[in-house]
Amino acid sequence: MFTPQGPSLRELTVQALSSVEHGYDLLANKFDATPFRTSDRLLTAVADTLEELGPFGSGLDVCCGTGAGLDVLRSVCAGRVTGVDFSTGMLTRARRAHPTATLVRADALALPFAPVFDLAVSFGAFGHFVPDAQRTLFTQVHAALRPGGTFAFPLPAPPLVGSRLYWTLWGFDAAMRVRNALWHPRFVMYYRTFRLPDVRARLEEAGFEVTLTPIESLGRRADGSPHCRLVVARKA
After folding, report:
1. Residue 46 burial by CB count (10 A; 0-12/13-18/19+): exposed, middle or buried?
2. How far is Cα 192 from Cα 172, in angstroms, rounded to an integer?
3. Which residue among 12, 117, 165, 177 is buried most deeply as judged by most CB within 10 Å?
C-alpha cells in the first residue's frame, strides 16, 4: 500500500476521516495501486464461473469504483455494460479506462434504473452497507433486473476463528466503530457485517432465489469447503 504509486499514510488518514463519498474521491487517482482494488485473479475466477451460468444480455456493476468489474461484464454479457457509483472521482477514473461503458453517478440505495438488466455484479463494496442498508441495496438491485435476471457476487469463506486474519478484521471493525462514535462524518466500512446466512436471508426477503456456486479455481480449505463461493441470486 505504501508504495510510490499508492497513497501515503497521511493520505489514507485524511480519507479515513472523511465521508465515504469524499474519501473515495480523494483516493480515486491511486485506488488501483492499493490492496482495496479487487484482484485480477478473483475477477477472472468470477468471470469463468459466470460463463457457465450465462449467456447474459445487459450487465450492471453496482458500486463499480474505477471499473475493475466492468471487464467481467464484458466477458459474459452480449449487450450494454453499465457501471454505477456515487464517487465522482472513481467514475472519472473508470471513464478513462472504459470509454465505451455507460457510467452513472448515483447512490446504490436509490438506483435510477428501470428493470432492464440481465446480470448485476458487485465487488468489494458490501462493507460500506450496514445490515439495514443491505436490505435496501438488495431491493434496489432486484428492481433493476429483468424477470429472471441474476445478481452475482463472490463471497470469501470467513477466516478461521483465532487466526491472524480473524483478529485483524475484528480489530479493524472495532476501530471503525470507535471512530464513527467519536468523529463525523461517519466512514462506514466493516468487514464482519456480511455473513452468508444473514446475506442469504436478506436476498430472499428482497425477492431473490439464492444458490451458491463454489469458485473452484480459487481452491478449497483443509476441511474441503471452498475458499470462495459465488452467490447467485435470481429474480423469479
Report:
1. buried
2. 9
3. 117
Per-domain boundaries in the chain: 1-36, 37-158+195-235
Contact 191, 130 (CB under 8 A): no
What are the distances in angstroms from CA 155 to CA 45, 196, 200, 229? 12, 8, 11, 5
What b/e string do you get for 7-41 counting C-beta neighbours within 10 Å, with b at 16 or more?
beeeebeebeebebbbbbbbbbebbbeeeeebeee
Report the topology of domain 37-158+195-235: Rossmann fold (3.40.50)
216: CB partners within 8 A, 6+ apart: 49, 226
- In contact, 59 and 81? CB cutoff 8 Å: yes
Cα separation, 10 vs 13, in Å, equals 5
| Three-state DSSP state, 224 | coil
Lookup result for grid cell 429472471: 148
Q: Are 200 and 222 in contact (CB under 8 A)?
A: no
- Residue whose entry in the numeric block shows the C-alpha cell 466500512: 189
| Distance, CA of 128 to chain centre | 9
pLDDT 10s digits, 173-216: 899 899 889 888 888 888 888 999 999 999 999 999 999 999 99
For residue 35 the three cell numbers come to 490492496
Prediction pTM value = 0.90
Distance CA 66, CA 98 (A): 9
Count of alpha carbons within 13 angstroms of residue 168, beta-carbon side = 6
